[in-house]
Amino acid sequence: MGIMALSLQEKIQDTNQGVYLIGTTPPKIGTDKAQLKIIAEKLLGRLHEIEYDGVIIYDIQDESSRTEQARPFAFKQTVDPREYSQLLRGLSDLDVITYKSVAQRGVSEFKAWLDETKNDYDLKNVVLVGSPSSAGDIKLSLPNAYKTLAEQSEDFFLGGVTIAERHANKRNEHQRLIEKTAQGCQFFISQAVYNAQATIDLITSYARTCKAQGLTPNRIILTFTPCGGEKTLEFMQWLGISVPEATKWRMLDSENTLSESVRICRENLDSILKSCAHLGVPLGLNIESLTNRKEEIDASINLYRLLKATMELNLAEKLIA
Q: Closest Cα to residue 291, out of 224, 221, 235, 249?
């Protein structure tokens, strides 16, 4: 009799082991079912040589309200992230985490979305995302979405987003993690990390506040992404990812921006693990490819291998400590 494989929820909640995820964006709207399946199979085909625990499917919104700058890549609406999630899960037998941007629709639509997500799509791992800026037309705030979900259903395993860069400016991101936990979040996924110090500061503040308040810290899944050149870098900065000046030039001035970005991510994870190993905040890994260029996807697979090995080593060292 084989042991039942742990669900993604069980893995995330079992702090003695790592959690390793791949982040992806659904194909553009209007992609037909047959083509959707081909795209999904191609992605899974590329991933078949690595071992991972599941896939994160983003909900891409037009974030132009957040910034005056033009978007470096044209915004294209995508197919419903739930459709792509369901497809990937069916083809791979792996769990998925589906993002949902809540600002565009009111409470009743969100309630209908929750029902559909549970009953029609059979998805339970969700990350709710608020409005990209307070300036936009917000039909439903994130706290209200959390409240609606809590009232409506026990069936979801809920995650939240964390942005270390916000901590660097406002120094209160760790409080937001604690508030979001009170609102039902059981794990967090970071924005892509290029500024290790901001992440170290956030994890440290979070750990100390949890300790002071007698709380158990939730797992923080750290996102890393390779950067293939100026255009991707512009896009990253447009998305609000903080890339220190020196890091930017180190990538752009190198022989090979993509390999250099992989090296930088490895160093950043190393320094986060060294600085935070003693804090008792369980971490995880999410590797995303921000574009669908073949080189960047290949680089993200190399990055995944490298960072997973780094993290596994860190966990193994903890066990002998």
A: 235
pLDDT at 273 over 70: yes
In the numeric block, which tokens belong to residue 246?
Answer: 């020196």
Q: Looking at per-residue confidence, does 241 or 83 come out higher?
A: 83
Tell me the residue type at 193: V
Q: In sequence order, what E strands does the chain have?
A: 20-24, 54-57, 95-101, 125-129, 157-162, 187-192, 219-224, 283-288
Residue 256's pLDDT band (boundaries 50, 70, 90)? very high
- The percent of residues in the chain predicted with pLDDT above 70, rounded, is 91
Question: Is the separation of the CB atoms in 228 and 295 below 8 Å?
Answer: yes
- Beta-bridge partners for 249: none
Which residue in 319, 40, 12 sits closest to 160, CA to CA? Answer: 12
- pLDDT confidence of 321, banded at 50, 70, 90? low
How far is Cα 101 from Cα 132, in angstroms, rounded to an integer?
Answer: 9
Helix (H) or strand (E) holding 85: helix 81-92
Cα(178)–Cα(191) distance, integer angstroms: 17
The partner residues of 158 in beta bridges, in order of sequence, read: 126
Tokens of 300: 């993200």
Length of the chain: 321
SS3 of 212, please? helix
CA 60 to chain centre: 12
For 205-214, letters b (16+ CB in 10 Å) and e give bbbeebeeee
- The reported pTM is 0.93
| CA 138/CA 140 separation, integer angstroms | 6
Burial class (CB in 10 A: 0-12, 13-18, 19+), 19: buried
